[in-house]
Write a structure and sequence with these properties.
Blueprint (H helix, E strand, L loop, with lengths): L5 H6 L5 H10 L3 H9 L3 E2 L14 E2 L5 E6 L8 H13 L4 E4 L6 H11 L3 E4 L1 H9 L8 H14 L3 E4 L5 H9 L9 H13 L4 H4 L1 H11 L2 E4 L14 H19 L4 E4 L6 H14 L5 E4 L11 H14 L4 E3 L12 H22 L2 H15 L3 H7 L3 H10 L16 H9 L10
Parallel strand pairs: 3-4, 3-10, 4-5, 5-6, 6-7, 7-8, 8-9, 9-10
Antiparallel strand pairs: 1-2
Helix pairs in contact: 4-15, 6-7, 7-11, 8-12, 13-14, 14-15, 15-16, 16-17, 17-18
Length: about 425
């Protein structure tokens, strides 16, 4: 039996090779994964042309996945440096790479990713259109916007962020309901400006069915972009954000009608006490489609530390239903991240994702913590290093303050509670000062 997309296959009861690989990673029965995919509650972004892909599933009852944003910009044009970041991100466990290139030979970089990289690859066609056509924004035509979508599809990207939720009606409501930080989404601001200058409807909204046909042809996952995501705490959960989310819920249903996989993008900045409610609202409006969140950042005052503010929000979001966390680095709001920033951002996001998976009852997550605790009880340093989310850093920290005795650390020495409890329970005598 033939199928067009992973969702189409799931609805027909066909187990694809991608499903088998993804289910094995989750230690899940493939039929259970297929059932989730048939309902749109889980996805496997897998463009038919991305031959180097190592598939992963995103969605309900699955481990929380991590996306890493990278790309070439006018101020940082070194393609090889970006590839080094990509390779480092994959080595550190990121399941997806999003190419946000906004300058230069974007096509070569994008095709290099889909040829060489095993991670899921995503793009934002709006950015690339501005670079590719190299002309004033208002002169780009509706047809040219759509042609870029097909170009990215042919290049093998697995998911595309399409900003189709902001249309003339939502734009009018945005202008009536003033915000502190307006629109902070790059793609959202670009298409809003284009609509204002041309007076035309958002082509991604107006020609949504044509975009879905492209997605169906190549089996691309539609990532419904949130142009009106809040860019500060004050704007969180406002009319513009919720209005757009309602539109995204309608667009989700239309995609499913064509067997196109969907994930929905979510908030950027949000107070901690609003995050859980936002996750539940999205699950209701979008009928359980996987939620992809940027953070959320739980405070606006920590530039240089926004990997931490995002990890706090990401853990809460994922514990309450988000499936996919977009990493945030210490360089957020300040500059393009370097290799070290990328590492810190990934580690922070992985900690958030893992903490959420423990809270969600993902068995493999709790097992990982149990193994670490057992190694700590036995004071098996090598096993602790191997189980660490960042083994290199854990090993380096211990080496930088080498203890007098190998069965202790420089913090407690002979006062080590673990060592002393092991000894006393084994019937040994504990003489802290005499040892």
């Amino acid at each position: 039996m033939e199928y067009t997309t992973q969702m189409d296959a799931a609805r027909k009861g066909i187990v694809t090779p991608e499903m088998e690989i993804a289910a094995a990673k989750e230690d899940m029965n493939v039929n259970e994964l297929m059932e989730l995919m048939a309902k749109g509650q889980a996805i496997i972004p897998a463009n038919k042309r991305h031959t180097s892909l190592d598939p992963s599933a995103i969605g309900a009852k699955l481990r929380t996945k991590i996306n890493v944003n990278l790309g070439i910009s006018r101020d940082c044009r070194d393609m090889d440096e970006e590839i080094r970041k990509v390779n480092s991100a994959v080595e550190m466990g990121a399941e997806a790479i999003m190419d946000l290139s906004s300058f230069g030979d974007t096509g070569t970089f994008r095709r290099r990713l889909t040829k060489e990289c095993p991670a899921i690859i995503g793009t934002v066609p709006i950015y690339d259109a501005v670079v590719y056509y190299h002309k004033p924004l208002k002169e780009i035509t509706s047809r040219e916007w759509l042609d870029i979508v097909r170009m990215h599809a042919e290049d093998g990207v697995d998911f595309m962020t399409i900003h189709c939720g902001i249309n003339k009606e939502t734009a009018r409501k945005f202008k009536r309901n003033k915000r502190l930080t307006n629109i902070v989404s790059r793609g959202g601001s670009i298409i809003f400006a284009w609509m204002e200058m041309t007076g035309e409807e958002n082509p991604f909204y107006e020609h949504y069915d044509e975009i879905l046909d492209i997605c169906r042809e190549y089996d691309i996952t539609m990532s419904l972009g949130d142009a009106c995501r809040p860019g500060c705490l004050k704007d969180a959960s406002d009319i513009s954000q919720i209005e757009e989310l309602i539109t995204l819920g309608e667009l989700t249903k239309r995609a499913w009608e064509k067997d196109v996989q969907v994930m929905v993008e979510g908030p950027g900045h949000m107070p901690m006490d609003q995050i859980a409610a936002n996750m539940k609202i999205q699950q209701t409006i979008c009928q359980g489609a996987p939620f992809y969140v940027l953070g959320p950042l739980v405070t606006d005052v920590a530039p240089g530390y926004d990997h931490i503010t995002a990890a706090i929000g990401g853990a809460i979001a994922a514990a309450n239903g988000a499936s996919f966390l977009c990493y945030v680095t210490p360089a957020e709001h300040l500059r393009l991240p370097n290799l070290q920033d990328v590492k810190e951002g990934i580690i922070a996001s992985r900690i958030a994702a893992h903490a959420a998976d423990v809270a969600k009852g993902i068995k493999s997550a709790a097992d990982w913590d149990h193994k670490m605790s057992d190694a700590r009880k036995r004071l098996d340093w090598e096993e602790m290093f191997s189980l660490s989310i960042d083994p290199e850093k854990a090993r380096r920290y211990r080496a930088e303050a080498k203890p007098e005795k190998e069965d202790t650390c420089s913090m407690c020495g002979n006062f080590c509670a673990v060592k002393n409890m092991n000894r006393i329970l084994d019937g040994e005598i504990v003489n802290i000062y005499d040892e």
